[in-house]
């Protein structure tokens, strides 16, 4: 079910990207699109906070922010809970260097170079981006060394 939800979120995000390309008659780099989505989510969140007295408007803005963030948070959720980057268009703020050859003894250098933060983390995650990177990286290390980490259902 989680895989289907992530796939569906990704499809919706790609549909929106294609609509932008058609409407503007130009292409947009995935990094630019991710920055745009981040800015929209941040803007909607800030406006919702500012509308504390008007519950109807605040509720609407919160729902809009939730809908705008679903696809991106699906990628983030998979990284944090499984240590897997499911990001075929490079929109996520963590980069995976797939060209590295796995050493026999899994040196620390390999893991430092395999995953890194891209420039331009989403503003709403900027202060915890490093922690998010390390969390998924550790899960990935465990999985590739043959250990399975089960996330408790109450955390999902």
Automatic annotation (TrEMBL):
GO terms for cellular component: gamma-tubulin complex; microtubule; spindle pole. This is Gamma-tubulin complex component. The keyword Cytoplasm applies. Coiled coil: none annotated. GO terms for biological process: cytoplasmic microtubule organization; meiotic cell cycle; microtubule nucleation; mitotic cell cycle; spindle assembly. Its main location: cytoplasm. InterPro entries: GCP, GCP_N. It comes from the Eukaryota. Component of the gamma-tubulin ring complex (gTuRC) which mediates microtubule nucleation. It comes from Rosa chinensis (China rose). GO terms for molecular function: gamma-tubulin binding; microtubule minus-end binding. Keywords: Cytoplasm, Cytoskeleton, Microtubule. It is found in: Cytoplasm, Cytoskeleton, Microtubule organizing center. Residues 39-149 form the Gamma tubulin complex component protein N-terminal domain. Belongs to the TUBGCP family.
């Amino acid at each position: 079910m989680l895989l289907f939800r992530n796939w569906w979120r990704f499809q919706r995000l790609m549909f929106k990207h294609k609509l932008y390309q058609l409407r503007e008659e130009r292409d947009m780099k995935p990094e630019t699109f991710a920055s745009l989505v981040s800015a929209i989510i941040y803007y909607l969140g800030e406006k919702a906070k500012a509308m504390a007295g008007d519950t109807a408007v605040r509720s609407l803005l919160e729902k809009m922010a939730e809908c705008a963030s679903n696809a991106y948070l699906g990628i983030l959720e998979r990284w944090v809970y499984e240590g897997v980057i499911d990001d075929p268009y490079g929109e996520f703020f963590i980069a995976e260097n797939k060209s590295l050859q796995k050493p026999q003894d899994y040196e620390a250098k390999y893991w430092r170079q395999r995953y890194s933060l891209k420039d331009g983390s989403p503003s709403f995650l900027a202060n915890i981006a490093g922690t998010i990177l390390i969390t998924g990286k550790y899960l990935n290390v465990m999985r590739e060394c043959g250990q399975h980490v089960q996330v408790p259902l109450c955390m999902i």
